[in-house]
Structures are given as C-alpha cells and as structure tokens.
Specification:
Number of strands: 9
Structural class: alpha/beta
Strand order of the largest sheet: 3-2-1-4-5-6-9
Mean pLDDT: 93
Order of helices and strands: EHEHEHEHEHEEEHE
Length: about 250
C-alpha cells in the first residue's frame, strides 16, 4: 500500500478514526473530514502521524451535502491523489415514526444518504480521471437489513446506501474500481453514545455476547481497501457479532 492515499469522512472519532489509523498503519497517507470538536480531529491527525504518514483534514457538515465534493477534491489535491475512499460520516436519531417530523427526516437523509452519494461520486470521478482504479467502501449498518423502532429515517438511509453501493459497483467495475459496504452492528463508538467502559459490557442475546469495537470494523474495511481485495465488489460485509443470526433464532434468555 506504499504511497497510496485514502480519504475517510467523519474520522474525528469512532469507526472513522479507527479506519484512518488502521490504514495509516498499513502505509497509506490519510485525508479525512471532521464535524464537531476540532480537538477530536487533532487527535486523529496525531495518531495518523504516529505511523509516519502524511495527513490532511477539513471540516465538513454534511447537513449541506453539496460541500462534500469540494472537500474530497481538496483533500485529494493536498495529498496528491486518491486510491481509497471510505464513506463513514453519519448521524442517527430516535423518533417514533408517528412523531418523526419532516425536518428531522430530511436532515438524516441529507447526511447519511445524499452526503454519502455526493462524496462517493466525487471520489469516483477522481479515480476514473486518474485511470488507476480504486477502492470505495460505504459504511452502512445492520439496520439496512433489519428494522429498529424509532429509527425510520436512519434505517431508510442506510438501506438506500446499501443499494447505491451495488449500483456503483456495477457501473464502476469497468474502471477498475471496486465498491463494497461494511455493515456494523452494535459498536462501542461515539455515534452510539457509548462510553469507553461499554466495550466490557455483556450482551447475552448476541452470539458474541458483547458489543464490537471500532478497530474490528476498521480491519474489515482495510481488507476491502487492500490490493488483495481485487475480486470483491458489490458485497456487503456484516460486522455484528452475529446479531443478524438472532433474527432467525429465539432469544434463549
């Protein structure tokens, strides 16, 4: 992976940070976007630099999704190209369907689906123009496949991103670009509002009997970003400790 460049959206915490650091450890220079506290972005940048890789980062608020393309273009320009793109930035919500207002629906869709589309399209255009192929990984969720109460907009957005992944894989294969998704289950991350101690919690209903940690998702994404994953495209990799298996299995508790 020497001298390759990866861009990761939403890498100031959680899965995004773990992905940025994992790819840096494997030899990629890292560009990333952040939203929230700049100190969190600085922490990610320092962790990337600890692996002696170049890093560039920009603020990006995907509630105005149109800015995503400019951010991807600028990061690629700063680092001298783009080989791997990871669509990670997302937001969630907890609103009963009957109480979910249009403003909240639109916000979640803008960040989780429209923003992901705009960013991935910009990344793909750069890869096609460079003529070297590339890797795109969209971070979705097990909730793209199974519903969760009070999460209608999130489930719909992640389901849409799963299907967008497949269309992208079909259309970009001729350019040597693979497109896959990674669908996490319960991960002790910032998006889940989890505390560091939550990784030690038990989950009797899960086959793995615990929540996951961000680096376990990052490891799967790193494989899909690698040169070893040339023949993998249009696939969805579930990283959920067996959560989806419980849909077909009665809870023993």
């Amino acid at each position: 992976m020497s001298r390759r460049v990866a861009i990761v959206t939403g890498a100031n915490s959680g899965i995004g940070r773990a992905v940025a650091v994992e790819l840096a450890q494997r030899g990629l220079d890292i560009g990333f976007t952040w939203h929230g506290e700049e100190q969190d972005a600085l922490t990610t940048a320092r962790q990337v630099q600890s692996h002696r890789r170049r890093v560039a980062y920009l603020p990006l608020d995907l509630s105005s999704a149109g800015g995503a393309a400019a951010a991807v273009d600028e990061l690629a320009d700063l680092l001298g190209g783009l080989h791997v793109f990871v669509n990670n930035a997302a937001t969630g919500h907890r609103d009963p369907f009957l109480e979910l207002d249009l403003e909240r629906w639109r916000h979640v869709m803008e960040v989780d689906l429209t923003g992901a589309f705009v960013a991935a399209q910009a990344a793909a255009r750069l890869m096609v123009a460079a003529g070297r192929g590339g890797r795109i990984v969209n971070v979705t969720s097990v909730l793209a496949q199974v519903p969760l109460r009070d999460a209608a907009a999130y489930c719909a957005a992640k389901g849409g991103l799963e299907q967008l992944t497949r269309v992208m894989a079909l259309e970009l294969a001729s350019h040597g670009i693979t497109v896959n998704s990674v669908a996490p289950g319960e991960i002790a991350s910032h998006l889940d509002g989890a505390s560091p101690d939550s990784v030690n919690a038990t989950r009797p209903a899960l086959p793995a009997r615990r929540p996951g940690v961000a680096r376990e998702v990052a490891a799967v994404i790193a494989f899909l970003a690698s040169t070893e994953a040339t023949y993998v495209t249009g696939a969805s990799y579930v990283v959920d400790g067996g959560m989806l298996l419980t849909v077909a299995t009665p809870d023993p508790s």
